[in-house]
Write a structure and sequence with these properties.
With 416 residues, the protein is α+β, with helices and mostly antiparallel strands. It is 32% helix and 22% strand. The chain contains 14 helices and 18 strands. The strands form four sheets. Strands 15-12-14-13-17-18-16 form a seven-stranded antiparallel sheet, sandwiched between helices. A five-stranded antiparallel sheet has the order 5-6-10-8-9. It has a four-stranded mixed sheet with strand order 1-2-4-3. Strand 17 and strand 18 form a beta hairpin. Helix 1 runs antiparallel to helix 3. The longest helix is centred in the C-terminal third of the chain and has 17 residues. The protein starts with 17 loop residues before the first helix and ends with a helix.
Length: 416
């Protein structure tokens, strides 16, 4: 869950040893790659706690030296990238050095014919996507903050995206990894090819660990051919039970959707808000999402005959499940809709001064009950809320208070 943000201080508190730390770090990564100015360090703050210094290494050897220095001096390190997900998890008890990984941004190797690549952890995800798109390939890491996040941060945070329905999460196509342990030892797990040697997949433990198990330095992935023509099917329902019933029907059919989500009524207002425009400056057709009904969405891909068959079957299922209406998106509208649901989390966070997002994982057939219970708690505590549920049973329930104060925080805690 995301912690309710507290009132930020204008100047973060600094360690009295910052000058000493900065001097030693400068010997390792160079003076121009060390930050000790409080105003600049504020960008690395976690829950009002800023580090004494930030270091920007450019190699694994430099990271090893920084970690060894921190171990010797009993300092705490937090590895960062684009800093879009620093508020996830519990705040650190100690935070002395921010290890900025953005200079490790090389494409180490790429074999389009073998559908494999190796990259350093600091490469921006959108930059990597553009490189492999030239070979008509892609990585299914369509995660929030896509245009900002680094690939190392995307893996370390463990946040999923719409393509999880068909391609799974990073653990399904992450082949190997190199990292630096907490003792300052360079290590690796897995390999660079799909068929690796036997052994423990230690690198998969790093997914979602928020950097607590080591500093990720490089990652090896399996890539995928670009999708052919795609469409999205949308149907609205009066109740969450009927929307989830549609999800169950699709899962039991022979269809293999690329994406599948259920949105609460409030998402329509959220996606048309100023917050949405700040995060993703795109728009959808007016009233595409209902303000009063639950919306089931599903994406599918294939040749024209396959697309037609999928649409026909989905319309029939929607009618049998009691849909109020249904529509199909393709082209630019489909691209915009996909981007908005990919950025659901940052849009929700941007729309409230005390936004709190709960990630709830349940069995797919328990989604209806879980969504209904969460909605009831939000309503009982008189809080604005929205929800997005993946078809595989992962629910993002966002509580969006209009104010940030002690009373609001108490309401949020009662809802959670």
């Amino acid at each position: 869950p995301r912690r309710p943000p507290r009132k930020r201080q204008s100047r973060p508190r600094m360690s009295t040893a910052s000058a000493i730390h900065g001097s030693r770090l400068a010997d390792i990564v160079g003076p121009s790659n060390v930050i000790t100015d409080p105003a600049q360090l504020a960008a690395y703050a976690i829950d009002e706690k800023a580090p004494a210094a930030a270091a920007r290494p450019q190699s694994t050897a430099e990271i090893v030296d920084v970690v060894k220095f921190a171990v010797k001096e009993k300092l705490a390190i937090v590895a960062t990238g684009a800093r879009t997900k620093l508020a996830m998890g519990l705040p650190p008890r100690q935070y002395d050095i921010a290890l900025d990984m953005t200079r490790l941004d090389r494409l180490v190797s790429y074999d389009p014919g073998d559908l494999t690549l190796s990259v350093e952890a600091g490469i921006p995800l959108h930059k990597l996507g553009a490189i492999i798109a030239e070979h008509h390939q892609f990585l299914p890491l369509a995660v929030p903050y896509y245009n900002l996040t680094t690939i190392g941060g995307a893996v370390a945070s463990g946040v999923d995206g719409p393509l999880r329905q068909f391609y799974g999460t990073a653990r399904d196509y992450l082949l190997g990894m190199e990292f630096v342990t907490g003792e300052g030892v360079a290590a690796k797990s897995g390999g660079r090819v799909v068929k690796n040697v036997t052994g423990f997949d230690i690198h998969k433990l790093m997914i979602g660990a928020l950097g607590t198990l080591g500093v990720i330095t490089s990652l090896n992935f399996k890539t995928f051919p670009m999708l052919t023509s795609s469409r999205a099917f949308m149907a609205t329902f009066q109740t969450v039970e009927r929307a989830c019933g549609m999800r169950n029907r699709v899962s039991q059919s022979q269809l293999t959707p690329i994406t599948m989500e259920i949105f609460s009524p409030g998402v329509s207002e959220l996606f048309s808000s100023e917050a949405a425009l700040r995060v993703a400056p795109i728009s959808l057709p007016k009233d595409l999402l209902s303000k009063a009904r639950w919306t089931f969405t599903s994406g599918f891909s294939g040749n024209p005959n396959t697309l037609t068959r999928c649409e026909t079957e989905l319309r029939k299922m929607a009618e049998e499940c009691g849909a109020v209406d249904a529509t199909v998106l393709e082209g630019p509208e489909l691209t915009s809709a996909f981007a908005l649901k990919r950025e659901f989390i940052p849009i929700a966070l941007e729309s409230s001064p005390a936004a709190t997002i709960l990630k709830i994982s349940v069995l797919p057939r328990q989604m209806s009950e879980a969504l209904a219970n969460a909605a009831r708690e939000g309503d009982n505590n008189r809080l604005r809320w929205v929800a997005m549920a993946r078809g595989l049973g992962v629910i993002y329930f966002a509580v969006l208070p209009t104010e940030s104060n002690d009373a609001t925080r108490q309401q949020v805690l009662q809802t959670a």
